[in-house]
Amino acid sequence: MKNIWTIAKREFDNYFSGPLAYVVMLAVLLPLGIYFSLILFYTSQQAVFGGGGAPDITPMNGLFAFLMVFLSPALTMRLLSDEARMGTLELLLTAPVRDSELVIGKWLGAMLFILTLLGITLIYPIVLNNFVTPGIDWSVVLSSYIGLILLCGTMLALGVGISAIFSNQFAAFFVTLGLIFFLYFLVGLPANLLPQSGDLLNYFSINNHFTQMNSGTITLGALTYFISLISFGLFAGTTAIEIRRWR
Amino acid sequence: MIKVNGLTKDYGARRAVHNLSFDAQQGEIVGFLGPNGAGKTTTMRILTGYMPPTDGEAIVAGYDVVEDSLEVRKRVGYLPETVPLYHDMAVFDYLKYMGELRHIPNVDDRVDEVLDQVGLYERANGYIGNLSKGMKQRVGLAQALLHRPEVLILDEPTIGLDPGQVVEVRQLIREIGKERTVLLSTHLLNEAQNLCDRVLIINKGKIVAEDTTENLQARLLGAERVVVRVRGESDELADTIKSVKGVRKVEAREDGGVEFEFASGKDLRPEVAKQVIKDGYDLLELRPLGMSLEEIFLELTNSEGKK
Asked: ipTM of this model?
């Protein structure tokens, strides 16, 4: 356990030693901030003329999830592939660290970064709460944030798994992007055309599960889905590292 | 401390290490000598728990490298051929990270100590990427020494160092080798000669010779060769030497010296000296010509190739 934390901490610090952390933060917080002010402006306009609903945090977190499709591969692409390219993997694999601890540590490091970013975005529901009487529905906010954490955890776990397979970080980036793009946007599309297998395809869509949680519904199916995919990504990564040893 | 028995490693169809057996005791520096691609790095990677062997077993610091890989890794310090460093980390932070992964108590103090040992204390806060090649090599060495390992495995430890640093690093290895087991690979023969207690010469995945450097020389030669030099003309010197009983293969050299040979174990140098002086020569030099490790090495690796 201590090893996981040591690796996670270094990975977290490492994001800030280069431009990546700041670029990702900018790419998330700038659109989010603009979107937030637009929502506030729009709902206040509507309120003047009467009607319109109370603003809520759902569209903000939806945007966060959308941005993560493109940004999470950037956060995971070099986690293990770069260690392989630089030869430092040899160092970690001859240190008394289990392969699974290495992979989980890398994933947790990326998660810590995402949690920091999510922590910053908590400012939006807090601000919103002050504008709306009698306040916003915090249970929806909670469900939405749990959804975001699971969504990011899934994307990062798949990314870490793929990063363990490649020695080239750009290969890892594009394969991860492709997989997440597919799971987020594409897999649910044919569901409407195929009444027979539609439910199954819908179940594989990250977007469907997240949208549910984002609007305040947590189902066992969604939890199982996210936790299974996280486990799968980390397991695939560990296996890929083990295969590297045998080669 | 290291016990290897029938170790074999295949990369696909290629056999990199073939039925290798050797051991190394505590307080011993063993040199692993061989041309590129001989299987040195592969063997070291197996011993450090990086990769499992295809066949055979290896016991390092009392634990099996396959069964108890983690226990082995706790007790081994390893400097790989390409020094594995994070270039965007400061020297101190890098060593501290490695120390934390190895659960070293008071890791900050220990890192300072090791930095002092490898002479990098002043550069502790500098980025690894900005260090010279020799300094990077020493950071790698510091990483291998950090946890006071029982067994130290060094893949070409002095490569890329300037002559002064080479002397320092060898001194360091010699000190460590007094109490622990050191296995180092090199293709610098003089390094093996002046650093190692014992040398394993490996070629195409097999050990072709294993002995102390002195014994290797004696064994291959089977005889000792000596050069004699005198003041002035020495046309008849060869005849004078030939007159000594037991002397063989007398040859005049172009530089005026005369070489001869005698069976090892029966030193004929005093007899030859007496005869040379008796015949009225001013004896200037009487020097044994040891076979260099280079020659031994070529001899062994070539004869292996011809089979």
From this structure: 0.88
What is the DSSP-derived secondary structure letter of residue A43?
Answer: H
Comparing CB atoms, the residue among A86, A88, A246 nearest residue B51 is A246
Q: B184 vs chain A: nearest CA distance in angstroms? A: 16
Q: What's the pTM? A: 0.84
Nearest to A74 by CA among A120, A43, A114: A114
Task: Indicate the DSSP class of residue A205.
Answer: -
- How many domains would you assign to chain A? 1
- Residues in chain B with CB shorter than 8 Å from the CB of A243 are none
C-alpha closest to that of A66 among A43, A32, A34, A110: A32
First and final C-alpha spacing in chain B = 33
Q: How far apart are CA A83 and CA A90, in angstroms?
A: 8
The distance between the two most distant Cα atoms of chain A, rounded to a whole number of Å, is 70
Where residue B299 falls (left for φ over 0; alpha for ψ -120 to 50; beta otherwise) is alpha
Residues of B in contact with A101 (CB under 8 A): none
* Structural domains of chain B in order of their starting residue, each with its CATH number: 2-211 (3.40.50.300), 218-293 (3.30.70.100)
CA–CA gap between residue B43 and residue B46 (Å, rounded): 5
Residue B99, token pair as written in the block:
């120390």
**What is the least distance, in Å, from the CA of B161 to any CA of chain A?**
20
| Greater model confidence, B42 or B227 | B42
Rounded Cα distance between B245 and B162, Å, is: 49
pLDDT one digit per residue (tens) for chain A, 247 residues? 899 999 999 999 999 988 999 999 999 999 999 999 988 888 777 766 665 566 778 888 999 999 999 999 999 999 999 999 988 999 999 999 999 999 999 999 999 999 999 999 999 999 888 877 777 888 889 999 999 999 999 999 999 999 999 999 999 999 999 999 999 988 777 766 766 666 777 788 888 899 989 888 899 999 999 999 999 999 999 999 999 888 7
Task: State which amino acid sits at residue A169.
Answer: Q
Which site among B76, B101, B141 would you substitute to test the A interface, given the most A Cβ atoms closer than 10 Å to its Cβ?
A: B101
